[in-house]
Specification:
Order of helices and strands of chain A: HHEEEHEEEHH
Shape of chain A: globular
Order of helices and strands of chain B: EHEEEHHEEHEH
Shape of chain B: elongated
Radius of gyration of chain B: 24 Å
Number of helices of chain B: 5
Oligomer: heterodimer
Distance between the termini of chain A: 45 Å
Largest sheet of chain B: 7 strands, antiparallel
Number of helices of chain A: 5
Largest interface: A-B, 53 and 40 residues
Structural class of chain B: alpha+beta
Radius of gyration of chain A: 17 Å
Structural class of chain A: alpha+beta
Helix content of chain B: 25-40%
Helix content of chain A: 40-55%
Strand content of chain A: 25-35%
Amino acid sequence: MQLLEKARDYEFLGREFLVWLWFRSETKEGRFSLGEAGSAELWFDGRIVLQPDENDREEKVICLGDTSRSREARFALAEYKTVTETKVKLRIGDNEWSFILDSTWMNFKSFKTPKVMQDTEQDPDGLFYEKFSLIQQALSAMDAIFTSFITLRLSSEWEESELPALLRWIKEGRQKAF
Amino acid sequence: MGLIIGSGSFTRFEVEGGLPEDYMEEFPKQIARLSFRHIDEASDQERSAGWVNIMDMFDNRFAAMDYLKEPCIAMAWRVDVRNVPAKALKQYCREAEEHIKAEEKLEFLSKKRRQEIKEGVQAILMKRAIPRSQTYDMIWNLQTALVLFGAVSNKLCDEFSEFFLQCFGLHLKTVFPYSMAARILEKQGKDPAFLDDLRPSLSQVE
């Protein structure tokens, strides 16, 4: 199967991951375990793009502002069911990152790391290693969270408890809007 | 701005196959061969792409193997493009056609002649065009075989993959949710084919 075809056929994995992130960030106070690396806080911040499904790519709802708590965003989720792009904030200890995640390629847009104090002129290698370490830290955290999602998604726990709770939470969004 | 100096967007790739045994001898030669070269102003070349220092886009010499930042190879891919604005081309073509018609006392010019004039004008104007430069950071972690590339457009990612192959002889595979999940299953000692039976589950909302 060609890469593009595979990416499209399994885009639902990325969409479900983003919805699950939103669900967990609201119902578990945004705290995610990173295994031996401790834990991270993650929340949706400023922008969510929702689309009906892979076959109907024309329609798109974009919610801006305090999206995670917005009734419109939750209503759109109940109607459209999947998130295709979202801006998230990630906090580990005192460090905070922000970036936009997309569901098809899971690439990172507008990626911002915490401020780096190194001087480009004085010590370019120092700046490189500090910045690279911050990028790696965020990527490792996101990979750990994605691993938790995939492990759960492929376990019996998904059908038994996680999915029913997630679907209830999605449905609540429609009721809250009225 | 690049990933290291500033902020930006990036795509992740996995390098297929292992590192060649002699990579410490071979890679410096290949990087030097494909380091960035300026567009020859006298030519009608429209584009030039090559490696530059990730910390300084004007440095393409990599003194003391500056790109080697253990355990990574870190460079920027610089792409210079120059072109002639369409409206300027149209205006200069019209002026050239009028001049030739007056000089040769012609009422009309054939399609072929007009095409020749256009090509000539394009070549003259191209030499006056100033290239636009863009750089895209590339960080290749040799231990994990993962590459971060500082762009997300499919076209650029394809062009970069082609350039990477040309330089190192290694294929890049884009990382995306399915491949990430397959890698997780492999690490857990499970068969990635397990993913093939998965179907979307959120459509169950009434």
